[in-house]
Write a structure and sequence with these properties.
Length: about 220
């Protein structure tokens, strides 16, 4: 398994030139992802009920839509989100989507395969570097926490996470917008494993490294 030393991890763009906008529809929490010691210097919480308005995203180049976000409220602001993508922004959407708050968004489909039989299959994408498939499929010996469904990706999308029936669990779309959409079926690549002592914790840091690389390439 690939090993990476995260001890002196630095970023070229994230945290210096821009932070990541984290759309939140819950009360402020000290223990939430945006306040985690690993992420707090790189993420800015956006209260979608108070702050999501015209020009509020102008200072950002990356947007995270977490699993538990109020999708119906985002739907009210779909033009703002579409404008962010069409202006070259990067969106990481981890919600199990049931409404089209982003253009042509695939809706979450619950897998019919029993949880005990279903496995998630990691690709060679750098987001999963050093991550064991077991640590994504199981949390403390129990399956099903990370993901239980799939989505139908655009034809030209890059599939980075699939299941044992070869259904798409996460993809990257570089062709439908001027920006980039990383979309998952309710699988939070940023937060999952954050409080565990296993390799799943690497996904979030690997995601930040990948995002920083994308920004660097577009400078």
């Amino acid at each position: 398994m690939d090993y990476m030393d995260y001890t002196n991890l630095t970023f070229q763009c994230i945290g210096k030139n821009t932070k990541i906008a984290y759309l939140d529809s819950w009360e402020y929490e000290d223990l939430e992802t945006y306040n985690n010691e690993l992420y707090k210097d790189y993420i800015k919480r956006i209260d979608i009920y108070k702050d999501l308005k015209a020009h509020c995203l102008d200072e950002f180049k990356i947007l995270v839509i977490p699993m538990g976000v109020d999708q119906l409220w985002l739907l009210r602001h779909k033009e703002l989100l579409a404008e962010f993508l069409d202006s070259g922004g990067i969106v990481c959407d981890f919600a199990a989507s049931f409404c089209e708050y982003l253009p042509n968004l695939p809706f979450y489909i619950q897998s019919d395969m029993p949880i005990k039989d279903r496995e998630l299959v990691l690709s060679k994408h750098c987001i999963f570097k050093g991550v064991r498939a077991y640590d994504v499929n199981y949390r403390r010996g129990v399956k099903g926490f990370f993901n239980r469904g799939f989505i139908k990706p655009p034809l030209e999308a890059e599939l980075i996470l699939t299941d044992s029936e070869n259904e798409c669990v996460a993809y990257i779309d570089r062709t439908s917008f001027k920006g980039i959409l990383l979309k998952s079926a309710g699988a939070d690549l940023l937060s999952f494993g954050l409080f565990e002592n296993d390799t799943a914790r690497r996904m979030g840091l690997n995601l930040l490294i990948w995002l920083d690389t994308q920004l660097g390439e577009n400078v």
